[in-house]
Amino acid sequence: MRGLLGTTVALAVFFLGGNLAGQPLSLGNTTTRRVNSSARPENATGDQAQAKVIELTAKKYEYSPGEIHVKKGTRVQLKIRALDRTHGFKISPYPEGAAKDAQPGLRFAEQQDSWKIEKEQERVIEFVAERTGTYAFKCSVFCGLGHGGMKGRLVVEE
To answer: Of 7, 28, 89, 153, whose CB count within 10 A is highest?
Structure first.
């Protein structure tokens, strides 16, 4: 009986990802939190709006497209695929030139601003663009000599 209980607990831990309490999971240098799939940001009116899906690719040493334009109030889903190796995606929630103690202009579904994108995998990053301005993004996982130039811009327009 004792062996059966231990096996049941081990299987439960395995199938639940080893995280029964919903605490942050550590994955190398990053920490991620399990997010309920219904935990999406709402737009400025409080309604669940249809997301604008933007597909982005990451490869040595560029994002394509390198500049993205969206309208203020839009719920955005960035679908980023790493084509050649593991890359990262880091974006400031504050527009360029804004005070860091002000309200962020991008409201993310997850409480983070940096994501790891494994080779040939897709990562979906969801947010609402609440303030106009230009938001810089860059690769946050070292990917070679041109890593420092792997940058892009998100432009939120009125």
So the answer is: 89
Cis peptide upstream of residue 94 (ω within 30 degrees of 0): no
Rounded to whole angstroms, the Cα distance separating 77 from 51 reads 6
Nearest CA-CA partner of 124 in 79, 83, 84, 86: 79
pLDDT at residue 100 greater than cutoff 90: no
Report pLDDT digits (tens) over 107-124. Answer: 998 888 899 999 999 999
